[in-house]
Amino acid sequence: MTLQTCYITSPSAPGFDVESTFQLIYIPRGEAAETSKAVTMVFTDRLAAYLAGVILSHLALTCVFLLATLAAVRWYIRDSYKVDGFSQKHVLITGCDSGFGNLLAKQLDRKGFQVMAACLTEKGAADLAAAASPRLKAFLLDVTDSASIRKAVESVSREVGERGLWGLVNNAGRSTPIGPTEWMKLEDFTKVLDVNLLGVIDVTLQFLPLLKKARGRVVNVASILGRLSLTGGGYCLSKWGVEAFSDSLRRDMQHFGINVSIIEPGFFKTNVTRIDLIDANLRRLWSRLPQDVKDSYGATYFDEYVKAQTFSMGLLCSPDISKVTRCMEHALTARFPRTRYAAGWDAKLFWIPLSYLPSFIADFIVNLILPSPKQKM
Known about the structure:
Elements: E1 3-6, H1 18-21, E2 25-28, H2 32-80, E3 90-93, H3 99-110, E4 114-119, H4 122-131, E5 137-140, H5 146-160, E6 167-170, E7 178-179, H6 186-214, E8 217-221, E9 232-233, H7 234-253, E10 259-265, H8 275-287, H9 291-297, H10 301-316, H11 322-333, E11 340-343, H12 345-356, H13 359-369
Parallel strand pairs: 3-4, 3-6, 4-5, 6-8, 8-10, 10-11
Antiparallel strand pairs: 1-2, 7-9
Helix pairs in contact: 3-11, 5-6, 6-7, 8-10
Pfam family, one: adh_short
Family: Belongs to the short-chain dehydrogenases/reductases (SDR) family.
Organism: Astatotilapia calliptera (Eastern happy)
């Protein structure tokens, strides 16, 4: 019996290895035609199966892409729905002397809201009232004083009546003193916590009955430093507390129709980031340190630390604070407000992603910004 050698060839295709699929075949001469047909059928079946797999995989990817696109479009449309009747809605904002609170008060006033702007100083209240419409009511409020808050509740209650309070924006805050933790005393922490955290809690608790009447909104201003602590002192600690308080409040109050939103600004040019105030407080902290502590940091550490703060604030701080107030406004006017709003590209693209990385990576990156003590290990 004579044997004939038969080779099978085909155009190559990605993922389709002909050589591994078909081997060298020895065919008896009399059976060549039948065997050739069989081999052709096997080849055709394998090629068809491969092509079907390619088509199905591409179809699956297309379906995933379409579903993601539809979900994004649905989210965008849902996010754009607004409540109505702005002129009948009362909103209380704390910390309106300057910065975010001041701009938000003017912004909401222009949209027709009944704005009640709480200021710490008489000058702040007078300047804001002069820059807004007669609808806006500016008054004094110290968020660290429960008696002052009770007085504000009585005044606001008379103003809103049975409608209740639609919005409470806890914006009042302070940053200093900040610096290395070893430079702090207990009162340095309490000064900041009293305003940024305990003040937020006290104001919210006292105004909750009015908010429940309106099924309103609570908007708490935290910070990206409520996710990632960059410096010692009470500021980062207080903002982490605001995040936790807001999460608890949201879960408790959703049963009563109250929405709670957290604003997480990046770095913006406000009184909180004024480098002259930060510098003055750092000098005060440094001057009271024992000499042995100063020696452990080194003679040049203080100047290097101040330079690092000045450089980072100058590089990161955005002058466009409307990026933050637009988030606040959305939380008050959207039919479906978000739970969290990250304001500023530094928050969205750097700080918040950094907060999800392993701690040793975040520590390494943060330590690149700040100087090292002389006597480090």
